[in-house]
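REQUEST ID: PR-0412
SUBMITTED BY: lab tech R.K.
PRIORITY: routine
TASK: structure prediction, single protein chain
INPUT:
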Amino acid sequence: MSELIFLGTGAGDKGMLLQKIKTSALYFDFDGIKFILDPGPGAIVNANLSGLDLTGINGLIVTHPHPDHTADANCLIDALRKPGTFLIAAKKCLIETKMYYPSINKFQQHIPEKIYAVEHGDALRIGDVAFEAVRNSHLDCGLGIKILGKKKIGYVGDGTLDDNQEFYHGMDLIIFNVLIPHGKPSVKGIHTSVDDIIKFLKLTKPKKAIIQHFSIEMIDAGIDKQARIIEKETKVATIAAKDGMKIRL
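STATUS: complete
OUTPUT:
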């Protein structure tokens, strides 16, 4: 049985400093492959608190170079010193740019057996699982990803939703990073809002939605209340993730 564990559900900036909730990181045991997606600060500690054996992971996925998505990545790569391991990373996590040094150190880039530098439109397969990447409007560095096996999972990542509805159509589950509560506008090219998600779900119609990666503003607005608003408006079953929450896929 495939499983998803939310090792943390918080966003960056002030929320990352205050740690009212743990910073976001997602653990997948999916169709025989174990990997962590966007490991923010504390991911290793939180995984151990959840009883996970990190020496058993097969891979790591990093969607963009911001520290609330990459802080524990270089340390986690030490778990990939064995055959059959992989790193899937947005290309901007692996190269030096005007705004970012490599968030995955050059030394660590030589540790996994296979490394995939992905950009918009790229697709790859590992075992029985396919991965596809799509551009997000997030400070010129965001990617979303589909994880396709026995179930179809969409992880939208940080950024505004723009015109990616077709890419995520027909998913069993879509996971949203949401920092702006209902009734407040999104910040174009930076972060999405509950109201953006409502519009998006009406077009994509997944079987289920999960919201996570919460800002302090979302926490203060009530994350369960925000999930209920989304579900009422879209008729899509919607859950507000909690730290340590486990979902069978």
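NOTES: The chain has seven helices and 14 strands.
REVIEWED BY: pending
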